[in-house]
Fold this protein.
Amino acid sequence: MKKLFLFLIFLIIFSVFGVTKNVYYVSTTGDDSNSGLSESQAWRTIAFAASSASPVSPGDIVYIKAGNYGNEKVVFETDGTKGNPIIFEGYQTVPGDNPDLKWEYGDSLNASVMPLLDGGDRSIGIGIKAHNRKYIIIKNIQIRNYRFGLYAWNAHNIKISNIIAMNFGDINAEYDGYGIVLGSLASNNTIENCSVLNAAAEGISIYGDNNYLKNCRVYGDDKSTGDKSATDYYIHIGGNNNIVESCYVERIGNLVHGGHGIDIKGNCENNLILNCVSKGMREEGFELRHRGVRYNTLENCITINGGYAIRDGASYNTIKNCKSINASYAAVLFYDTDEDGGAHYCGRYNVFENCIFQDTKGYEISFVEYNLASIADSNTFVNCVFDGGEYLFNCDRENKNNKMVNCIVTNVKNYYTTANNQPIEYPLNFDFEYTVFWNNGFDSPSEVNVMTIDPEFVDISNNDYHLRSTSPCIDAGTSEGAPLTDFDGNPRLPANHSSLKPIIPRAEFETNFRPIVNRVDIGAYEYLRNPLVDLSHGRSSSNTNFTHTSSTSDKIIINATKSDWNNIKIYDISGHDVTKLIRKTILNKRLILLDLTKLKHGIYLVKTNSTTKKVYKK
């Protein structure tokens, strides 16, 4: 009876306080025969700590001291639990000090700051393997010179943080080498604050569902690759319901492969690519690829040098509030290959909305010749701006039922060309509705509601495509199919968009913004009498620039919590506090009107304790 009583007491204590958590240590001066329970009794290898031979169990943390651990091949063999994950964390001098390499492109790895795994031969081996594992946290580790850096197949609820990885794959192979991979069936995992350089096939890849990738960077350059090898997919998505946020990819130098910047390929639905940048790709900064790629969204993304590719049947996707800058070949590409069994159409019912394609060097839209002569059809560009380019269209494949609505086309030299890379002359079958053409080297298409007139941008020389108060594009578009908000996130709020009424009561909108009409403006930006600056949610970080809001009058309206009102500060571009020159008027519990009459023309920062946004006074 006494033993039973003690056992029940143990169960009660266990249920209240949970799993007993042990702390273990690994160091290059340690020994795997040690207890691991102190720095002086540290184990020698990370591989032993991760194996089932060690006592590490759910809830435990393993601190790994900075140093070169050489050619270890770490295999995780024990799971954590939902409330008690297993944590493997690198440190520099004091356990838990969260070392930051401050690694930037061009830097080498530094074993004195964070633990380093070095396989010595980038054509073989896996640095860290976490197949079939769950509830594990891996952070603050450097990895180089393996075939795979970190590979987790069928892993669930794993968090990978602050991993710096470089040089993976046989440099004499055409496709080999992987940086960080969540393999097939991996779900509900997180990869954050990681960097990969020169994985000669794939930088960061996600093949499962419901995973989250944030603040990661992937680079490929020509400094450590062979004649055949170069990063092919910088960030690759091959599953459903994944989120890729605030990531950056860049192709640098004379690489043999043109690169796919951020790619969604396979049977992939409902993925979100948000606030990402792709730079230096030869053609495809962002790519939607294969007929199973549907219902995905690219939002607030920028591609520099490359374009947005729709190929091999990708359909029903949305590209919104995105930019293409200096596309060397084309800002938008449609084509079909013999992959995926041959989709027999490039892609259909894809929508580009509130997008800006600026300083394009080649084609704005290219129906590209490839090895299948199939059709590109039923895609829509709505409230977009096209500025620059040798040709508006390249027609090297069949196209029909594609259209522009509420768009502006400026400074394009030629209308379209065909039979460039194949002998067939394909006609252009493209519709235009409520579209403005200006200063192009060709006559505007003769269609209903097409205008040849200066859109009156605020400052086109500096790529500011906001509309002046005298612009003929104001109220000249159609609300049918138009996006509910503009490039800045300001509401378009036509009368028939009743779903947005609760955001700003109609009476306040009519009084403080502009009269409601049945049309929206043409172009990516909605002209508002007093632009709305939303400070009600989101926090800025040191490397975040919030969306610009254009003011074409002396007033702006702030959407913020009442507690923020007393903390609103206005600074000029030099950092001088000009808040005393602003008059505030409370409109309701959420909105406050700022009178900028006493300010000079220029750029100002509107700040609270948690948020900063940039506004213009014209």
Summary: Confidence is low (pLDDT under 50) at residues 1-18, 494-504, 538-552.
